[in-house]
Amino acid sequence: MFLIQLLFGRFEQYYKNVYFPVFQLKVECFVNEKIMRKANAIPYDRANSPESFDKYNRVIENSSKAIMQSYQAVCLVCGLAEAFVMIL
Fold first, then answer.
1. Which of 28, 33, 76, 86 could tie 64 with a disulfide, CB 3.0–4.6 Å?
2. Percent of the chain scored above 90 by pLDDT?
3. Which pLDDT does position 13 carry in this prediction?
4. Cα torsion at 10, 23, 69, 12 (round to 10°)?
């Protein structure tokens, strides 16, 4: 049991300090690249309006946050499942 707690503690430190920040940067870069590709496909006359700029800013601000919240929710469910298994 002590060995499991030790390994889990080390994994948790690695996850919080190394994996998650790198993963978050990769997700943000991927999403922003996809958004830029879609924005470049819009004709200039349609893209040069205040509504379009507002939509673009809203998408940039909210897209990666929503993806990361979904990812954290999945991780929470996995953590709860792991805790349930450890109890049994």
1. 28
2. 0
3. 80
4. 0
Contact 31, 63 (CB under 8 A): yes
Let me know how long the chain is.
88
Rounded to 5 degrees, φ, ψ at 43 are -60, 150
Average pLDDT, the chain: 80
When comparing pLDDT for 88 and 70, which is higher?
70
Is residue 66 within 8 A of residue 35, CB to CB? The reply is: no
Residue matched to tokens 């953590």? 79
Cα–Cα distance between 75 and 69 in angstroms, integer? Answer: 10
Q: How far is the C-alpha of 48 from the C-alpha of 5, rounded, in Å?
A: 56
Q: What is the CA radius of gyration of the chain?
A: 20
Phi, psi angles (nearest 5°) of residue 41:
-80, -15
